[in-house]
Amino acid sequence: MGLDYLGTVLDRDIKENDIVLMVSLDGAQLYEKKQLDCWMYIWIIINLSLDKHYCKIHVQPGGFIPGPNKPKNIDSFLFIGMHHLAAIQNEGLTVWDVSHDATFISNLHLLFTTADGPGLIYWDGMVGHSGKNGSLLKPLIQCIHGSDHPSIDITQIPLGGSDDYAQNLYRLMTAPNQEQLDIWKTETVLFCMTTDIMHLASNLSDLLLALWHGTIDCGTSDDEGTWEWAVF
Fold first, then answer.
1. Mean per-residue pLDDT for 49-67?
2. CA atoms within 13 Å, Cβ hemisphere of 140
3. pLDDT, tens digit, 9 for 90 and up, residues 110-130
């Protein structure tokens, strides 16, 4: 992915005054004892130095989706922002540089559409955690058909190749109807989008620390005293 970006810069498709964007979608829990009750997305200008591009002044709100339930058709909420971006990409953004008293056209490039694991399905239309290819460990309980295989040794997983990707993509694109598309999505699980660093570093570390300390919430049928991994 880094080479793709650098290659585009070297080819002058991304120029000095252009703006490169990342959009991030997430749900927010406003109250401690309630489930996720609103969703929002933001725009981040990422072709800035590392000490600037995550500062609030360079992070722009994109939209807010009220709860209390998850949006059934999130595209209807994202459409306005994406349509506005497409219009600017088509016409260019006229910018006045007051320090040089000069006007120039800046082109906008969308590099990443990001979210956490469950949120990525809203961007790419895939199946997230319910995909067949994502199941490596055999569940101990409620083992449904399709997951009742022996656990897979992660050191023996074959590397994915472009041939498999092209074949799976063609299969999805030629689905005769929505029902078949939904079924085939669980079989292929194409990974088209990426998670952002906030979910990889912050959220994941919170979960792991709570597990290791034995402070994470658990069901009534579970007992933190039996957790061998709670070593802190």
1. 84
2. 0
3. 888 887 766 776 776 655 555
pLDDT digits (tens, 9 = 90+) for 92-104: 999 998 988 999 9
User: Model confidence over 22-57: pLDDT tens digits?
Assistant: 888 887 777 776 666 788 899 988 888 888 878 888
Question: Residue 25: helix, strand or coil by DSSP?
Answer: strand
Beta-carbon contacts of residue 94 (< 8 Å; ≥ 6 apart): 103, 104, 105, 106
Local structure of residue 158 (DSSP, 8 states): P
Measured CA to CA, the distance from residue 37 to residue 183 in angstroms comes to: 29
For residue 215, the SS3 value is: coil
| Residue with the two structure tokens 């459409």 | 79
Q: What is the DSSP string of 94-150?
A: EEEETTTTEEEEE-EEEEEEEE-TTTHHHHH---GGG-GGG--S--SSS--TTS-SP
d(CA 34, CA 55): 29
Q: Tell me which residue has tokens 């063609």.
A: 170
Tokens of 9: 């810069």
* One-letter amino acid for residue 84 of the chain: H
